[in-house]
Hints:
Helix content of chain A is 67%, strand content 6%. By secondary structure, chain A is mainly alpha-helical. Chain A folds into two domains: 3-42 and 168-361, no CATH class; 49-146, abc type-2 transporter like fold. Chain A has a four-stranded mixed sheet with strand order 2-1-3-4, sandwiched between helices. The radius of gyration of chain A is 27 Å and the shape is elongated. By secondary structure, chain B is of the alpha/beta class. Chain B has 19 helices and 24 strands. A six-stranded mixed sheet of chain B has the order 6-7-8-3-9-10, with helices on both faces. In chain B, helix 3 packs parallel to helix 5, helix 7 (226-233) crosses helix 10 (303-310) and helix 13 (426-436) runs parallel beside helix 15. The longest helix of chain B has 20 residues, at 565-584. The interface between A and B is medium-sized, with 29 and 37 residues.
Amino acid sequence: MNIRTIKALIYKETKQIRRDASSILVAFVMPALLLIIYGYGLSFDIKHIKIDLIQQDSGKLAKDLADAYTYSEYFSTNIVHSTQEAKGNMEAGNTMGAIMIPENFSKNVKKGKKTEIQVVSDGTDPNTAAYIEGYATGLFNQFLMGHRRPGGPSINVLSRLWFNPTTESINFLMVGALAMILSIVGTYLTSLVVAKEWERGTMEALIATPTSIWEIIISKVIPYFVLSVVSLAFTVLCGVFIFGVPFEGSIIAMSLTSSVFIVVSLLIGLLISTSAKNQFVAAMGAVMVTFLPTMMLSGFVFEMKSMPLWIQIISYIFPARYYVSGMRTIFLVGDIWHIVLRDTAVMAAMAVCLLGALKKKLRKNLE
Amino acid sequence: MIEITNLTKTFERGKVTALTDVSCELQSGKLIGFIGPDGSGKTTLIRIIAGILTPDSGEIVVDGQPLDIYETRDKEKLQIGDYQRVTSYMPQKFGLYEDLSVIENLTLYAQLRGLSGDEMHKAFEKVLDLVKLGNFQDRLAGNLSGGMKQKLGLACSLLRKPKILILDEPSVGVDPISRKDLIRMVNTMLDNHTTVLWSTAYLDEAEDLDHVVLLHDGKVTYEGCPHNAKQTVNGRVFLFGGVTEKKRLFSSELLRTDGIIDSVIVGKNIKVITRDRSIEEIYQEVSLRHEDLKKPTPLVPIFEDACIDILGGIQEKESPVTEYVKDLSFSGHDTVVEAMGLTKKFGNFTAAENISFSVKRGKIFGLLGPNGSGKSTTFKMLCGLLRQNAGTAKIVGIDISNMGSDAKLNIGYMAQKFSLYPVLSVRHNLEFASGAYRLSGKRRRDAVNKMIEIFHLGSLQNSNAGSLSLGFKQRLALACAIIHKPPVLFLDEPTSGVDPITRKEFWMHINAMVMCGVSTIVTTHFMDEAENCDEIALIYNGKIRAHGTPDELKSLCKEEKNPTLNHVFVKIVKEVDAAMEEQGQ
């Protein structure tokens, strides 16, 4: 391997990256866009859900409870007096659910009797329905705690979500966004760039020079590795300082996991480009192998535990699954080394396998 | 010396054969051509010689040392890596990085060849001087013209003087002047130690080469000096002069005459190649029917004549298309196509400016020009594929701007690139084309069967169109364009990359249709083909620079003894360029 050859090729690649608007777009504009969408637009925390309050009790405690719902940021309430009316509103799509405070509610609470409220939610949107149920019962329990019969032991139940105390979506979407950006830069961009060289005939010219195939590979890997790292740093800095995403772990842990993931992504990109010699096929390949699995099967948008077992098993083939898991730990919990190292080790093993496959598939040849 | 023995190469697990038992001997210090139509195997052969493709079997010996083409790492053999140190290869499309500047491309290739510092800068000076790109060092390669790209590609491969310079179709998409330049530059490189391999589909380029290997369907059909090849047809090429009227009819009559293997229209003359029969005998026979026919004059053969002879001459002597279109009915218009002041702008760039001409019924009109001259733009405006910024165009009297789909039935169009459905069978493609042109029921079935019969597609009718050889693809494309018997036929570069026999047969079909009254507009960069046209417009830099019959145009070039359209073309392009330069200064 000749250092001067590699230097010449890397210099060329860097020039091309800098002149190509699409690489800048993918490495910087896309992360910014994703962060903005996740930070402001897309949010899995639902607030101000429209519901009806069916007030069948006019006692003071019933009013207090109604107020608790009304002033809660989760709901925007409308008081009705019959189940019929609530049903009508729900059918018309005006509300997503209803909470019924039954007759004798105040009396029962005062007496310390078992009291219940009824929560009805629109099952056509299971996500929101689950939120309504959760928020409504949570508030109700808090309310009950505050109105225990005097004399009894004061128990303070605090419902707490660990590791993402404010349950901000951006905090856990951030890691998914990183995985997505790195797969796009690593796999998508790389396979596209190599395919472009095949299409334009420059690869043919290159392999007819004394340059060895490993020199060509290394000179592709290094610039795109650097681009990936810069894009990663940019995204993390924006996430932490602009969107206030917590960063509990260490930079070392993050760098380690991310480097291995970037290498895996690059190798996948190069492997795709050994068989896909035009940009269209390369793009499709990259989307199928990295982008979609990262989106669907990394646990970044959809919770893996709720998927059928066989899909869960399939998800373990994709590196993004491990990266999201490791990075989420680093961001939200801290350096839990056994998790971080386990995930990194799996990805490293993948890298070794990919390198073996690449070595087998690659020949300095047109076929 | 490079000795190639029994090279065989197949693709797709043996399904497609690219080369069969190719053997040839290439002397050092010579300019050697691999010549053949597209798909003949020349690129495969060139790539194997460049060491970037492994053959199935066969051997290459370079200067007495066998080349390790199978990468067995046999120490006795010349390793590919070492071999590539002394060779330079310029692929099709020149292998340039379009987003790098001229000097950046040169620097990259210099460093990959181990040049640096002073040595590198000296090499730059030398090649930039040779290709005259010194003033364009900082321009991005993507912004260079075709000719300049080609020169830069050549410069990149000459940075370190190679022992073997391999050029794959260096002249594709390049104007004739740049082509001549390139051959001149390559010739200056030649000496006892440097061999240049040059592949091309243009037979006329062979005239300037020392040695040619003629490939056809993956086999060598001729190997030797082009001059020697021409000797074999010497005294067998003649010109029948002064055939003004019905030249097409006469040409096809000659072709049917015993002893004539090729007959082509050259302006108002007809050129023939004879075989196994003396021209006197032929003249006697023909003049029985044409009393005032002048005695044919002998011609100096060109390499293409030799190729036609080598390939066995024109097999099909009469076009069955005649029978198909003879009952064509025409509306009253005598002027079938009319262009008046057509102008097309793309942003600031004027692709075509004030183009005007007209085509009468039963005539062939040729649009000639190098790539990027505006001929395709003009062509597309005429068939309604592109909307003009100014001017009008009429087809059979109907303005194309408000031409309905009914009026489009008057047009048959054959695109430059293969534009049929590659995964549909030949028959299905024809059925689709006939359906698209509103044929149905029995008429449709008859039309499809007739086309299959005329173009000899019977045995291939169930094969996928994509798997056909280029010659058959092109026949199919023509069949699809004429299946609805259009009175106007548009052909965009119909014969590029096709072997000479197929080209001749193609023109025979076109001439047959024209004789039945079909009007044809054709774009081409084959100057000899343009001789078939009744009228030619030479387009360069978006304007018509010359307009007239082939003979009128040739008379513009008085300084040549035997002017060809190529001479005219070169002259006009040079004049325009000189005028532009003057304006610029």
